[in-house]
Amino acid sequence: MGRDSVRDRESDVPAAPTPGILVMVGRACTRRCCVCGGGKLFRRWTQMVERCPSCGYLFERAEGQFIGAVGMNTIITFGLLLVVLVVGFITTSPNTPAAELAIIGVAVSVIAPILLYPFSKTTWTAIDLAMTPLEPGEAPLLSARLATAAADRDDVANAP
Ligand SMILES: [Zn+2]
């Protein structure tokens, strides 16, 4: 068990299965829950709910969890800025309009992080889950549904 001893867990309920990384990234790219694929994770573009309304997964597993998302967002924004500046410079050289290019650069630096924000959070959640799979009690609504489904199957199997 180890690092989760401080967390409040329903240890009698087995952990829900963690989806594969490709499934999770696919869900993240459409701003859905990596664990269950459920939607409605954002109240507004930049305001993420605390828990998935479909499976109950708590997105901020540990304090500072989303520093990784901020870092990822920053790296992608700098990458975009670099591409814009290099392409702008190459296509207009030797008469590069410095002021226009600077304005475009500032616009990219402001708009890209806002557009990418929700995706960076869901994608970081996928990366974190790939590194540290679901533990018991982390997606309580999903675990409960799986347990009910398993019980139903047992009932059918045991029926006379
Ligand atoms: Zn979910």
Automatic annotation (TrEMBL):
InterPro entries recorded for this chain?
Answer: DUF983 (IPR009325)
Q: What is this protein called?
A: Unannotated protein
Organism from which the protein derives:
freshwater metagenome
Q: Which Pfam families match?
A: DUF983
Keywords, A to Z? Membrane, Transmembrane, Transmembrane helix
Q: Which residues cross the membrane?
A: 66-89, 101-119
